[in-house]
Specification:
The protein has about 270 residues and is α/β, with parallel strands linked by helices. It has a domain of about 190 residues: TIM Barrel. The chain is about 40% helix and about 15% strand. The strands form two sheets. Strands 3-4-5-6-7-8-9-10 form an eight-stranded parallel beta sheet, with helices on one face. Strand 1 and strand 2 form a beta hairpin. The longest helix has 15 residues.
């Protein structure tokens, strides 16, 4: 497994996203993913599957210290005392003494960011999270968070795939020595029928999705594809035995658009 390095942490380059995975299916996929070599699990309070992610982790037999576990605090828990309480509840559901990374899931302008970040840093100081970070933050919000947070922020987790131009976020992460973690890295499955990615994949004996994930990893981005199919688990992690050329990577990057976003809500920030 390759890693993405930022500040003092190394994040496995490929992880398992668990959004929309529930119940026994979620636990089984987590268990199988870890047995296949995954070492990065991503969940969130709002996913309502932290308990099952913990079950899958324990069932896998993989030592806890080898697995990078991320969860996220939902926006209605951003008030300081509420954030600490909700973090404890996440650990109880996961049956873990700490997570490797605790993120603010989305920006919440109704709670002063400095107060939320103070609470997040306090949770880290208490030993409930080894690292902290943000998710779905714009460049401006990310830089405000860096300035106001008493502790280092490890990453910004955002939607990123070949159809969405995230150049500004990626460059800001590099500038501030933060990792970029990509959710929906295969554009919710849309890349699988892409002609360009399929053509490049054929040249390497790989699928379009594998080419897409490789493109992200070669940018030193950690990708967390979600799948509910066991056969896709193997496919998504088998990307470390080939390399895209500079010309191939440039072709893929040229596909991006400013309006290629797939995840957007009424409470979303004004995107870059």
């Amino acid at each position: 497994m390759q890693f993405v390095e930022a500040k003092t942490a190394k994040i496995p380059a490929i992880g398992l996203g668990t959004w929309e995975l529930r119940g026994r299916t979620c636990a089984r996929l987590v268990e199988q993913a870890l047995r296949l070599g995954y070492r990065h699990l991503d969940t969130a309070q709002i996913y309502e599957n932290e308990r099952e992610v913990g079950e899958g982790l324990r069932a896998s037999g993989v030592p806890r210290g080898e697995v990078f576990v991320t969860t996220k605090v939902w926006t209605n828990h951003f008030a300081p005392h509420d954030l600490e309480r909700s973090a404890k509840e996440s650990l109880t559901r996961l049956r873990l003494s700490e997570v490797d990374l605790l993120l603010l899931h989305w920006p919440n302008p109704r709670v002063p960011l400095s107060e939320t970040l103070d609470a997040l840093a306090h949770v880290r100081k208490l030993g409930m999270a080894r690292h902290i970070g943000v998710s779905n933050f714009t460049v401006a919000l990310m830089e405000e968070a860096i300035e106001k947070c008493p502790a280092p922020l490890l990453c910004n987790q955002v939607e990123y795939h070949p159809y969405l131009d995230q150049t500004r976020i990626r460059e800001a992460c590099v500038q501030h020595d933060m990792a970029l973690v990509a959710y929906s890295p295969i554009a919710k499955g849309r890349v699988r029928k892409d002609e360009l990615l399929t053509r490049i994949g054929n040249a390497h004996g790989k699928s379009a999705a594998q080419v897409c994930l490789r493109w992200l990893v070669q940018q030193k981005v950690s990708a967390i594809p979600r799948t509910s199919r066991l056969e896709r688990l193997s496919e998504n992690i088998e990307i470390f035995d080939f390399e895209l050329s500079a010309a191939e990577s440039a072709e893929i990057s040229a596909m991006s658009r400013g309006d290629g976003r797939l995840t957007d809500f009424g409470f979303s920030p004004k995107w870059d």
